[in-house]
């Protein structure tokens, strides 16, 4: 149970990281 929670938390952090990475990429593309 605890291990499953750790896996879910890792997946959430990875998804958030990808979201931030995508937002940063868009910002770089749209910044003159």
Helix content: over 70%
* Rg, Å, rounded: 14 Å
Give the number of helices.
Answer: 1
Cα-to-Cα separation, first versus last residue? 49 Å
* SSE class: mainly alpha
Gross morphology: rod-shaped
Mean pLDDT: 81
N-to-C SSE series?
A: H
Strand content: under 5%
Number of strands: 0
The unreliable regions are: none
Largest sheet: none
Q: Can you walk me through this structure?
A:
The protein has 1 helix and no strands. The termini are far apart. By secondary structure, it is an all-alpha fold. The mean pLDDT is 81. 91% of the residues lie in helices and 0% in strands.
Topology readout:
Elements (H helix, E strand, L loop, with lengths): L1 H29 L2
Quick structural summary:
The protein has 32 residues and is mostly helical. It has 1 helix and no strands.
